[in-house]
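Subgroup meeting minutes
Present: P.N., E.W., G.H.
Scribe: E.W.

1. P.N. recapped why we're keeping a running log of single-chain structure predictions: easier to compare across weeks, and new members can see raw inputs and outputs side by side.
2. G.H. added today's entry (174 aa).
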Amino acid sequence: MALSKDKKAEVVNEVTQLLKDSKLTVLAKYQGTSVKSMQELRRSSRDNGTKVMVVKNRLFKKAASTDERFKDTDLAQITGQLIYAFNSEDEVAPAQSLANFAKNEPQIEFVAALTAEGKLLPAEEVKVLASLPSKNELIAQTVAMLLSPVNDVTNALSGNLHALLDGVEAKAAA
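Output recorded in log:
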C-alpha cells in the first residue's frame, strides 16, 4: 500500500532525527527474510539500543540530504531492499546486531554504513566493526587489565602469608 504524503513526511522526519542522533547507521540487504525473523531482529537489537527499520531508499536519501554531514556523501549504492540499523549510544552495536542475526539468517548482507561524521563505510569495514568487542566488553577488559597487578600482588602476599603461618604452626606443634 502506498504511503500518503503526510506519512512520508513523518517517516523522513523520523529518519532525519535517527541519523542526527546515530553514531553509526548500518545498511544491509534482507531479501528473503521472513516477517517473524525481522520481528526477532528488531526485538534482539533493542537490547543494545539499536533501532532497526525498513525504509524506502528514496525517503532515506531525502532524510540524509537534509543533514549537512551527508551532503557530499555519495549514496548511489543505496539500492534494493534494505534495512537500516541506527544506534545513538554505541558505534559498533548496529553492526554487531546484524552480524549476530546473520549467523542464523545468512541472507542478511552488509551493504554499507554511515558514520556520525558523514563518512560512508564499505561492507568490508562494517564486517570488521562487527567483529570488535562492544563498548562494555572493552571497558571490562580494561578494568581487568588494570586490576591484574593488584590481584597478582594480593595473591603473592597471601601465598607467602599462608606459608609463614603453616611454618609457625609446625614449629608450635613440635
